[in-house]
């Protein structure tokens, strides 16, 4: 991928984009599936965007990114989903970075207590058949009898959630892209480094438990699931957080809430389908997500306290970009719209819906007391109005989309369940 930024005021040279919140609109994001057909057939994508640069000069810049076709030499072109973004990086200003760095004492005192000591944490083995026990096989038999009642569309949702959890290396990488809070050495003693490693270690139990449970059920094609995980980790993700801790912690606040909702729903549904132990498993994972959400929203709450303008602009910026789902690049080697299919099943079964997206946004608006924040700059005031008006707008759009969706049944097969079909709509 090549990215070029031209300064039209001088029409000279090529240089990197400097950073500021105002550049958020410069970002271009496309997947090959969203390209005009002419571009698709040539396997070439060109994204063009015009942005107004911050500052009194108000100069115009053109940001252009181009993705060139892979050298295929006769071999089939992979239809694997990909994403390209313009390279807006390190968008926190030096002053704000200093301000953020001054929060270390606060993070030690206020953030780290959200972690649980290892000895007090549950472990996957607490909820799985004990392999050293004489009745291990009986325990597995019981598990399989309970899991036999789980419908295929439920399994698709649970597998999708498990794969999302299993791409944990990507999320730790994302946290370590953030200026001011990254773990600089891999074992940094700063509260941010301690938090990131311990958060990762807590999260690691989620994918581990769901993976082992699903393996023991015998209901899913584990090799296909494992391939999807390998593809997904290999794809990484770019949530457009620009190495900026303001944007990064808005993103993680949203995502932890989303996983709390999703695991909470798979818990409820497992109980309804008659697998109480699986309900407990999804429930304890949801509880972890809730605790993590509390921690990340606490960070953003602090940013609103010390820098209401900056926090407001960051919140609006991430909402404008739309929060990308961490597993949106999932691929199993066959289905190039696997994530869309999985999302449809999650939507139809009520595991995670467009309404949840709007609810999360509304929850965060309330959590950070966004409507009552005063003393904002003109730009931040506009951002405040934008985020406050967004949840009802998204609900309206969702209602319209749902009305269209009801027009006809659609089914899709998933390699995760041996290519059996489930209803998508
Ligand atoms: Fe998790
Ligand atoms: Fe999480």
UniProtKB/TrEMBL annotation:
InterPro entries: Fatty_acid_desaturase-2, Ferritin-like_SF, RNR-like. GO terms for molecular function: metal ion binding; stearoyl-[ACP] desaturase activity. Binds 2 iron ions per subunit. Its main location: plastid. It comes from the Eukaryota. Fe cation 2 binds at residues 203, 256, 289, 292. It holds the Pfam family FA_desaturase_2. GO terms for biological process: fatty acid biosynthetic process; fatty acid metabolic process. SUPFAM superfamilies: Ferritin-like. Keywords: Chloroplast, Fatty acid biosynthesis, Fatty acid metabolism, Iron, Lipid biosynthesis, Lipid metabolism, Metal-binding, Oxidoreductase, Plastid, Transit peptide. Fe cation 1 binds at residues 165, 203, 206, 289. It is found in: Plastid, Chloroplast. Signal peptide: none annotated. GO terms for cellular component: chloroplast. Its cofactor is Fe cation; Fe(2+). Homodimer. PANTHER family: ACYL- ACYL-CARRIER-PROTEIN DESATURASE-RELATED (PTHR31155), STEAROYL-[ACYL-CARRIER-PROTEIN] 9-DESATURASE 7, CHLOROPLASTIC (PTHR31155:SF9). Belongs to the fatty acid desaturase type 2 family. This is Acyl-[acyl-carrier-protein] desaturase. The gene is LOC112289744.
């Amino acid at each position: 991928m090549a990215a070029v930024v031209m300064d039209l005021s001088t029409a000279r040279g090529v240089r990197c984009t400097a950073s500021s919140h105002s550049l958020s609109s410069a970002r271009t994001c496309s997947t090959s599936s969203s390209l005009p057909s002419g571009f698709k057939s040539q396997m070439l994508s060109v994204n063009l965007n015009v942005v107004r640069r911050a500052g009194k000069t108000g100069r115009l810049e053109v940001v252009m990114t181009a993705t060139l076709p892979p050298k295929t030499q006769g071999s089939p072109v992979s239809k694997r989903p990909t994403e390209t973004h313009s390279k807006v990086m390190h968008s926190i200003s030096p002053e704000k970075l200093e301000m953020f760095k001054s929060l270390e004492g606060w993070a030690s005192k206020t953030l780290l207590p959200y972690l649980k000591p290892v000895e007090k944490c549950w472990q996957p083995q607490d909820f799985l058949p004990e392999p050293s026990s004489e009745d291990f096989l009986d325990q597995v038999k019981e598990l399989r009898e309970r899991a036999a009642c789980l419908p295929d569309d439920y399994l698709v949702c649970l597998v999708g959630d498990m794969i999302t959890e299993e791409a944990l290396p990507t999320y730790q990488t994302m946290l370590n892209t953030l200026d001011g809070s990254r773990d600089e050495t891999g074992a940094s003693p700063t509260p941010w480094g301690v938090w990131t490693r311990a958060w990762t270690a807590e999260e690691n139990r989620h994918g581990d438990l769901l993976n082992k449970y699903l393996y023991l059920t015998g209901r899913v094609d584990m090799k296909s699931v494992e391939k999807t995980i390998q593809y997904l980790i290999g794809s990484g993700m770019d949530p457009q957080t620009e190495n900026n801790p303001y944007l990064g912690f808005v993103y993680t606040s949203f995502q932890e809430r989303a996983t709390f909702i999703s695991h909470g729903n798979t818990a409820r549904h497992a109980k309804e389908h008659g697998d109480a132990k699986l309900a407990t498993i999804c429930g304890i994972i949801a509880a972890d997500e809730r605790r993590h959400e509390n921690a990340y929203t606490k960070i953003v709450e602090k940013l609103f306290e010390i820098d209401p303008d900056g926090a407001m602009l960051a919140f609006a910026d991430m909402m404008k970009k739309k929060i990308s789902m961490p597993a949106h690049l999932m691929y199993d080697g066959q289905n190039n719209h696997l994530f869309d299919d999985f999302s449809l099943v999650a939507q139809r079964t009520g595991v995670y819906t467009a309404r949840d997206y709007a609810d999360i946004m509304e929850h965060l608006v309330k959590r950070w007391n966004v409507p009552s924040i005063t003393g904002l700059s003109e730009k931040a005031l506009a951002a405040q109005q934008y985020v406050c008006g967004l949840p009802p707008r998204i609900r309206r759009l969702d209602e319209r989309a749902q009305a269209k969706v009801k027009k006809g049944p659609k089914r899709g097969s998933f390699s995760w369940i041996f290519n059996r079909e489930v209803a998508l709509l």
